[in-house]
């Protein structure tokens, strides 16, 4: 090997023969092939989601800065073409164009688009290769951790995936949940400590995800299929090629630590879930708008073929830009450190945060709000055998009946997330006064059935905490007529004082 060829050797391995260097627009054939794979994936993603990159009437744009809207689709495809012929300059221009498009519409901050652009950096030079290693390690570790930490994942999400695989979710749902979460976390840890060991599992995992999303199984979210195939190819190559050593320089240490830790900010609302590797695990905020004509769940899809970027600020922005005056918004957020939010759109067009009580109340020109039912609660209660009633398919749950044969005291605290509950029937259940005291405050509860229970006057008085409760069926229970009379008198006095 000549001195000149020795000087071109990279830290990641032996350099290609000198005749191959700069043959493909400044990159070796292999690197250029990886770049082309990323560009192909990004092009396919843009084309699948083409209306997202155009000016549209609905759903409304979500600009970071309110500017006159312009289309970005053709311009972004042009930057990809530039990247093919001038890789480094083209990549910089492509990233800049994407960021600018996000300023015009944050609906476009889809994780697959962002990740495709980051993967391109691995093909440009060894610095990019190492950074992408830590990006993928973070992606896989946190995709698994978010699932393992999410009650939503181990209930309806894992069950839905298990059903799509043709398996009985009651038998295999939990196994699939643990398997997927631990599998992703394991691949991420391998990327940190033994990247070559992560290469083949990463390929198998992402090819499997791509196949799962096709009509062969789940038949859903086609826009992420190109990205998953790209990660299988480019991610597998990165893990096989990159040096297995831990960072040697301060800059790489900083990049690695930041990439591995920043997704934790999702749990306190500092980092958007789209860039925090929250992938199918649930636990993200949801929004429901109530108007005079009904309710609207804030969603995406349709012609855009992508989900709504469910962030609290974007849910508020969508509400402010699309809802009529007098409408209300409920943002349901199950993160432990963040609570639910309630808003009304005032006559001047501004939105105002309000209390839960104000949300459910009506006023002239202001609708009474409808809150979101928590999917985890619905799943748990349904799986435990409770009967839940709706007035229409898309309406909220207004009544719950728990049969004595399936009653468990742990079911009562779950009702806290059924905000629209008006009736609860516990007739015949072995519910005690102490257990009834655990019933959370239900802002719309009007009636409760306690017939043939052991509930006494003591338990009945704990129900005075329920602000709207005015009917108790206590026949056959241990509630005395005097206790019932006292309850009704106190409730009547409270209503009179209001």
TrEMBL record:
Keyword Hydrolase listed: no
Pfam families: MauE (PF07291)
Entry keyword set: Membrane, Transmembrane, Transmembrane helix
Cellular location(s): Membrane
Main localization (coarse): membrane
InterPro entries (alphabetical): LRR_dom_sf, Methylamine_util_MauE
Tree of life domain: Bacteria
GO cellular component: membrane
Protein name: Methylamine utilisation protein MauE domain-containing protein
Species of provenance: Blastopirellula retiformator
């Amino acid at each position: 090997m000549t001195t000149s060829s020795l000087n071109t050797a990279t830290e990641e391995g032996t350099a290609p023969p000198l005749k191959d260097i700069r043959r493909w627009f400044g990159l070796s054939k292999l690197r250029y092939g990886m770049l082309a794979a990323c560009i192909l994936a990004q092009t396919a993603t843009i084309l699948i989601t083409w209306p997202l990159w155009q000016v549209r009437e609905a759903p409304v744009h979500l600009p970071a800065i309110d500017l006159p809207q312009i289309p970005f689709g053709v311009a972004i495809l042009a930057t990809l073409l530039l990247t093919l012929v001038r890789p480094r300059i083209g990549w910089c221009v492509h990233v800049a164009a994407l960021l600018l498009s996000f300023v015009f519409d944050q609906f476009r901050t889809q994780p697959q688009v962002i990740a495709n652009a980051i993967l391109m950096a691995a093909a440009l030079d060894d610095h990019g290769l190492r950074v992408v290693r830590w990006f993928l390690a973070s992606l896989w570790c946190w995709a698994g951790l978010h699932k393992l930490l999410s009650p939503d994942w181990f209930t309806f999400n894992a069950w839905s995936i298990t059903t799509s695989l043709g398996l009985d979710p009651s038998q295999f749902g939990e196994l699939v949940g643990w398997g997927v979460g631990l599998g992703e976390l394991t691949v991420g840890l391998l990327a940190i400590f033994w990247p070559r060991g992560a290469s083949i599992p990463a390929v198998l995992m992402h090819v499997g995800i791509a196949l799962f999303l096709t009509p062969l199984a789940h038949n859903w979210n086609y826009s992420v299929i190109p990205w998953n195939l790209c990660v299988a190819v480019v991610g597998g190559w990165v893990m096989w090629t990159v040096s297995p050593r831990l960072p040697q320089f301060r800059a790489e240490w900083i990049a690695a630590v930041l990439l591995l830790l920043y997704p934790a900010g999702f749990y306190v609302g500092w980092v958007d879930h789209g860039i925090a590797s929250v992938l199918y695990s649930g636990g993200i905020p949801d929004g429901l708008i109530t108007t005079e004509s009904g309710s609207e769940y804030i969603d995406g899809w349709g012609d855009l073929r992508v989900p709504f970027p469910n962030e609290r600020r974007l849910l508020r922005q969508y509400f402010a830009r699309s809802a009529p005056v007098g409408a209300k918004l409920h943002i349901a957020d199950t993160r432990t450190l963040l609570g639910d939010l309630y808003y009304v759109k005032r006559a001047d067009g501004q939105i105002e945060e309000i209390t839960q009580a104000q949300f459910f109340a009506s006023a002239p020109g202001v609708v009474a709000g409808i809150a979101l039912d928590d999917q985890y609660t619905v799943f748990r209660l349904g799986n435990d055998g409770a009967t839940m009633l709706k007035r229409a398919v898309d309406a909220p749950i207004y009544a719950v009946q728990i049969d004595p044969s399936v009653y468990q005291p742990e079911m009562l605290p779950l009702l806290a997330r059924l905000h629209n509950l008006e009736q609860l029937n516990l007739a015949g259940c072995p519910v005690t006064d102490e257990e009834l005291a655990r019933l959370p405050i239900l802002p719309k509860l009007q009636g409760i059935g306690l017939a043939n229970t052991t509930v006494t006057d003591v338990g009945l008085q704990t129900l005075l905490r329920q602000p709207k409760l005015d009917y108790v069926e206590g026949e056959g229970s241990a509630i005395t007529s005097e206790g019932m009379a006292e309850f009704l008198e106190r409730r009547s006095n409270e209503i009179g004082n209001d």
